[in-house]
Amino acid sequence: MPTFEFDQPLCWAHRGFSAKYPENTLAAFQAALDAGAEGIELDVTLTRDGQLVVIHDETLERTTSGTGSVSALDLAELRTLDAGIWFGPEFAGQRLPLLTEVLDMVGGKMLVNIEIKPEAAHVPAEVPVERQVLDLIRERGLLDSVLVSSFDYMILIRLRGLDEDLRLGLLVTGEEENIDFRALVQAIDAFSFHIRAAELIPDVVDLLHEDGVRVFCWTESYDDEALAMAQILEMGADGFFANDVDAFLTRCAEALA
Ligand code: G3P
Ligand code: MG
After folding, report:
1. Are 240 and 248 in contact (CB under 8 A)?
2. What are the domain boundaries of the chain?
3. Average pLDDT of the segment spanning 98-114
4. Is 89 exposed, middle or buried (0-12, 13-18, 19+ CB in 10 A)?
5. For the domain bounded by 10-256, which CATH number is listed?
6. Considering the chain, what is the average pLDDT of its residues?
7. What pTM was estimated for this model as a whole?
8. Per-residue pLDDT, 155
């Protein structure tokens, strides 16, 4: 079982093994486990009836057979949608996973980075999204293998107020203005700082490492992923959210050889 006490770059499967499987589906997470990734990253938001569902976009069009906002439908309606066929006919029948299903599948076998989408904080729910996520992690005894991140740092601040030990990752695009990221990381007592590969500079890695904070990167475009992997490893980043899991694992293995 991989741990957060690692000394080689971590391979996080970004939305699962999303280069070869439909993102954020059980098929993509299983493939990441089979490929040997140390962890998965997934995106979570709330349905209209307040359930934790795994999907990246605020709307359904790109990755499902549905239309409109995720938060406009109840879980039962969302579960009728196909979340695989857009990627390929062989993936027909994949459903939007519940967070519980993903944790049941890989929890305790891999590290899991749960990214809470900012819109989840705006869905009126009996139990707020951060409370639900924390309760699930605790119930399953996964505090040592889960990292929670968000672009909405208020979500992270609330989580820190709820649990002093939970690992938190501050997620930024790198394009934000007038924010002192180092101070924010310290205020949140974040485990890690997550930034787009194109925005990473060596000084940032050095300063955060001085503070004992890990640095993880990702890239949005598959086309520049190989270059991004090389650059962030050169700068000393601690891991990568890889769409192409095999490519990153191969690169890491070559670097060790
Ligand atoms: O968590 C890293 C990365 O997934 C953040 O961006 O838009 O892909 O969720 P996004
Ligand atoms: Mg994400």
Report:
1. yes
2. 10-256
3. 98
4. exposed
5. 3.20.20.190
6. 96
7. 0.98
8. 97
Write the Ramachandran bin of 36: left for phi over 0, alpha for psi from -120 to 50, otherwise beta. left
Ligand 1 pocket: which of 176, 194, 199, 243 to mutate (most atoms within 8 A of CB) = 194
Average pLDDT value for residue range 32-49? 98
Q: CB within 6 Å of ligand 1 — which residues?
A: 14, 41, 43, 56, 115, 149, 171, 194, 218, 241
φ and ψ at 172, to 5 degrees?
-135, 155
- Pick the residue whose CA is nearest to atom 2 on ligand 1: 218
Nearest in space to 249 (alpha carbons), one of 12, 14, 3, 24: 12
Alpha helices by DSSP H, 36-169? 75-78, 99-106, 129-139, 153-162
The Cα–Cα gap between 74 and 192 comes to 33
pLDDT tens by residue, 176-207: 888 899 999 999 999 999 999 999 999 999 99
Place of tokens 């967070």: 99
Q: Is 14 a catalytic residue?
A: yes
CA distance 34 to 88: 20
Taking alpha carbons only, the member of 146, 63, 52, 155 closest to residue 98 is: 52
* Cα 131 from chain centre: 18
Backbone phi, psi, residue 95, to 5°: -110, 165
For residue 113, give the ligand 1 atom closest to its CA: 1
- Phi, psi torsion values for 63, nearest 5 degrees: -120, 10
Q: In the numeric block, which tokens belong to residue 138?
A: 């605790």
